Amino acid sequence: MAEMIVDVISPEKPLYSGKATAVTARAWDGELGIKPGHAPMLTRLGTGEVRIQSGGETMRFAVQSGFLEVADNHVVILSEKAVAVEESQWVKAADIEAVIKQLAETTDVARREELEQTLSWMRACEKLQAHVKK
Description:
Layout (H helix, E strand, L loop, with lengths): L3 E6 L4 E7 L1 E6 L2 E5 L6 E14 L2 E15 L2 E11 L8 H13 L3 H25 L1
Parallel strand pairs: 1-7
Antiparallel strand pairs: 1-2, 3-4, 3-5, 5-6, 6-7
Helix pairs in contact: 1-2
């Protein structure tokens, strides 16, 4: 089966580097699937899940913003914030409720934007957590 090289990199450390048969990622405007031989491209990532399929296994990462580049059968994911499922410290419903409450009480535009990004990240992690527990 055809393969490609995939690298997932966060500011803290590289999270994955290896061969894969498919990558699925959340771009800023929707989900995107990549297989070996994909045309070159560069896209902005949204907040959500990245799935990497390799050898019958699927690795999952929660990703917040960044960029995805495809060139010469090599996929590079550079993320502002990313965590592998195995390393994730799961989000609690009470934490989400606290952010929602802060958001409702805040009128400062910059603070609201920060809280909205935090909430988006927490919900992406929560969704990933629910999928893993199945």
